[in-house]
């Protein structure tokens, strides 16, 4: 009887190890392989040359008066100036024509084309800062301008960020023991700075 039990246990151990090995092989087959998407190093001069090249491609399209491109790593944004009296559908057609002109270019294939005069003016300022050796400052200034346009101005006295004594108002409704207990917890949580205010 003991030998049958020992054989049965050995069979269970052997079959358990075999199943475990198959599970690890299946797990390796399920791995997803992705392309390395890290930006390759592109120096400032090369970025400037690519920007000029993309702007020239855009300016070759009829009805594009001026074009500006900004290239950062693999990202390229091309802003185009067109005549102000065009219909919206014509603007879309011109943007499409500019995108088509860049489709086969290795640097312009993934470029973003915009025809908004405000964005194009901002791209001009960023490109100028890039050319003057201040790429980070140019981008940060433009992000600040964009944020300033989006965020409303609100007087500071309308919305008080942290009202003084906000937690003290509801404390008056508590009984004496609960109030004392709460004050001790608040003082401890503030690292004993609560009473110093």
TrEMBL record:
Keyword Metal-binding attributed: no
Name of the molecule in the record: YhcN/YlaJ family sporulation lipoprotein
Native organism: Mesobacillus foraminis
Keyword annotations from UniProtKB, A to Z: Lipoprotein
Pfam families named in the record: Spore_YhcN_YlaJ
TM stretches of this protein: none
InterPro entries given in the database record: Spore_lipoprot_YhcN/YlaJ, Spore_lipoprot_YhcN/YlaJ-like
Positions of region (Disordered): 157-197
Biased segments, Basic and acidic residues type: 169-197
Any Gene Ontology biological process: sporulation resulting in formation of a cellular spore
Signal peptide span: none
